[in-house]
Design goal:
The structure is a single chain. This protein has 180 residues and is of the alpha+beta class. It has one domain: Peptide Deformylase (Alpha-Beta Complex), CATH 3.90.45.10. Helices cover 26% and strands 28% of the residues. The strands form two sheets. A five-stranded antiparallel β-sheet has the order 1-2-3-6-7. A hairpin with a 2-residue loop joins strand 4 and strand 5. The radius of gyration is 16 Å and the shape is globular. The chain binds nickel (II) ion. Nickel (II) ion binds next to helix 2.
Length: 180
Amino acid sequence: MAILEILKYPDPRLKKVALPVRDFSAKTVQLVSDMLDTMYAAPGVGLAAPQVGVSQRVVVLDTDHENPGKQVLKLINPVITHAEGEVIWEEGCLSVVEFTADVKRAAQVQVKAFDEHEREIKIEADGLLAVALQHEIDHLDGKLFIDRISRLKRELYTRKRIKSLRNGDEPSHEPARVMI
Ligand code: NI
């Protein structure tokens, strides 16, 4: 079991576009396992490799709060193949401390990916899982949910965040909510 450090905005590594996984090795299996440990410990319902400083297209998700561990998704090189509808969801992120905002996303998505053993997976999702899939795939493209809110809101948050980093404020304990 390994719990990795989760990078926090404005760490520049969160802005990098992650590279596809080309060789599925024991290292990939280990990364997925460490990311799951890190996600559950946070706690969160989704985590993308760039959030732990690994620039690879790897995502883990478990959006079923009631039965943790039963609906685990391990996605390598995920791609959205279809998106439709619209939903506004209040998002939070393990890499964006002390902030949530309403974000507009597709309401339903279809995603194609591989698991860590290079088996193809197809997912059809709506609700929280659809939102979480889009949020995590954004991480792979160097995007955070705050890149999808108004510039004014983003700048207010950035200013507050930089000020508290400068003052050395410890982030207060995260309130209980869904972190993706
Ligand atoms: Ni996130």
